[in-house]
Amino acid sequence: MYIKPATERPSIDTGLSNNNLQIPVIDLGRLAEGVVECRATMKAISDACREWGFFQVVNHGVSLELMARMREIWRAFFHLPMEKKQLYANSPKTYEGYGSRLGVDKAAILDWGDYFYLHLLPNSIKNIDKWPSLPTSCRETIEEYGNELVKLCGLLMKVMSISLGLDVGYLQEAFGGEEVGACMRVNYYPKCPQPELTLGLSSHSDPGGITVLLADDQVKGLQVRKGDNWVTVQPAPNAFIVNMGDQIQVLSNAMYKSVEHRVITNAKEERISIAFFYNPKCDLLLGPARQLVTPDRPPLYDSMTFNEYRLYIRKKGPRGKTQVESLKAA
């Protein structure tokens, strides 16, 4: 049920660690310091998007107390008795709520983890009644945190637009302007007796736009593919981990890349992470920006709505980068 094929099993002891290779750490505080510092920060983000598809941000403007509070409330939720958590159980049709299965393939090998998925934007589909009411103040904290991360993603979208040579608001408008989507997936990975046989989350690239991850600050688990290697990410203190989703790869005509990543498990410690997804409006057609299409670099992808793409992934479950590669124009 949880044992992965030999080709997909992690090599727990040989993943590259912070001693030899790590994703970049970028100080966003410098964006407010002046033109030279701003250019340096934008170049660092651009380089990271091209070379890694992943980076960490510090001095991002989000309260450290709020970050700590989010970790605390979600750890408390996953420690509730099962009957309390089952009050928020999802289904293959709704996905929103508490669950443990990704995709609707009944024969799929499960990942070693539970999650809680909820919608934040657009407001028309946000339903706070589906959010946990325990622990106390959980809903208010989620709302506050979501608002702060929407602001952070808006800033990153501007920086990436300029770095691609586009108008400052291009990516935001391509995502639907004020009608963007935002959702959150909180992951709980319990202790695993045989971490070498399974994964907390199978290898995949994120289908949406930008992912901002609040990682567990005590237990490592996220691995990013770099060439033929899996790099175990060492979370920087007080940082968010940012990665590009498939829609940014499509819009940038593959100048910026989404990257495969996965989560390994731990025999001795549980782990919590909180992923915030900033996504396009679901019914907008997305394709490569025409400014990034040239005779030497034709459009690499056919256009598709995010809804169509998301439905495809929901049916198949996590499958590396095969989903976005399947969009490539003939």
TrEMBL record:
In terms of Gene3D superfamilies, this protein maps to:
B-lactam Antibiotic, Isopenicillin N Synthase, Chain (2.60.120.330)
> Which superkingdom heads the taxonomic lineage of this protein's source?
Eukaryota
| One example of a Gene Ontology biological process annotation | negative regulation of defense response to insect
Cite the PROSITE patterns for this sequence.
FE2OG_OXY (PS51471)
Give me the reactions it catalyses: jasmonate + 2-oxoglutarate + O2 = (1R,2R)-12-hydroxyjasmonate + succinate + CO2
Keyword annotations for this protein, in alphabetical order, are:
Iron, Jasmonic acid signaling pathway, Metal-binding, Oxidoreductase, Plant defense
Q: Which cofactor does it need?
A: Fe(2+); L-ascorbate
List the InterPro entries hit by this protein, alphabetically: DIOX_N (IPR026992), IPNS-like_FE2OG_OXY (IPR044861), IPNS-like_sf (IPR027443), Oxoglu/Fe-dep_dioxygenase_dom (IPR005123), Plant_2OG-oxidoreductases (IPR050295)
Q: Which Pfam families match?
A: 2OG-FeII_Oxy, DIOX_N
Q: A single Gene Ontology molecular function, please?
A: jasmonic acid hydrolase
Domain called Fe2OG dioxygenase: residue spans:
179-280
Q: Which family does it belong to?
A: Belongs to the iron/ascorbate-dependent oxidoreductase family.
Q: What is this protein called?
A: Fe2OG dioxygenase domain-containing protein
